[in-house]
From TrEMBL:
One Pfam family named in its UniProt record: Sigma70_r4_2
Residue intervals of the RNA polymerase sigma-70 region domain: 29-96
Family: Belongs to the sigma-70 factor family. ECF subfamily.
Keyword annotations: Sigma factor, Transcription, Transcription regulation
Domain RNA polymerase sigma factor 70 region 4 type span(s) in chain numbering: 129-180
Protein name: RNA polymerase subunit sigma-24
Superkingdom of the organism of origin: Bacteria
Length: 188
């Protein structure tokens, strides 16, 4: 525990040095956390080149946001959250692009169910189970879930494509989530 506290104090010294106008101190933080950030990116993107590019973007974003770092959590936790959010934004953009190019094709890893860092990366087993639960939903719930989560369509886009109101789409998604939650509880 003392070692962890010592590490946290050391990283705070480097953060404070950067905030005090010594940008060269940021090099230490990059060296210390570049592997962590790269592996987060690689896990989410499954692509080495994209992971490397995103890692650079994440460190640039963290550097520019460092004045807003309140020091109520460790720097590594704060950086991890930036990395996950940046990667999720990248993944959503890739999914939208893929949906525009080939709206019928869906990769089972394309659906992220939670925005919290602890729940970001779904296991293959969980992903398969979610896919099966979606496939077992009755229409119109199945298509509403697929269009919203897999194709990244807005409520309005789904409503227009299906000839219903956005409020109906919202209701169908709410009910579909409730059905899937119930099914998930039954499987436990």
């Amino acid at each position: 525990m003392k070692r962890e506290e010592g590490r946290r104090l050391e990283e705070l010294q480097w953060v404070r040095a950067v905030k005090a106008g010594h940008p060269e101190a940021y090099k230490y933080l990059v060296q210390r956390y570049q592997n962590m950030v790269y592996h987060v990116c690689l896990k989410i993107t499954s692509d080495d080149t994209s992971a490397k590019d995103l890692s650079q973007d994440i460190f640039m974003k963290a550097y520019s946001a460092l004045p807003a770092f309140r020091e109520d959590s460790s720097f590594s936790t704060w950086l991890y959250q930036i990395a996950v959010r940046k990667c999720l934004d990248w993944k959503r953009a890739q999914q939208r692009e893929q949906a525009r190019r080939s709206p019928g094709e869906v990769n089972e890893n394309d659906w992220v169910t939670s925005e919290t860092p602890e729940q970001i990366v779904l296991s293959e087993e969980k992903s398969s189970r979610i896919r099966r639960m979606v496939d077992e939903l009755a229409e119109p719930y199945r298509s509403a879930v697929r269009m919203y989560y897999f194709e990244q369509c807005s409520y309005q886009e789904i409503a227009e494509r299906r000839g219903i109101t956005a409020k109906t789409v919202e209701s169908q998604l709410y009910r579909a989530r409730a059905m899937m939650r119930k099914k998930g509880e039954e499987l436990r």
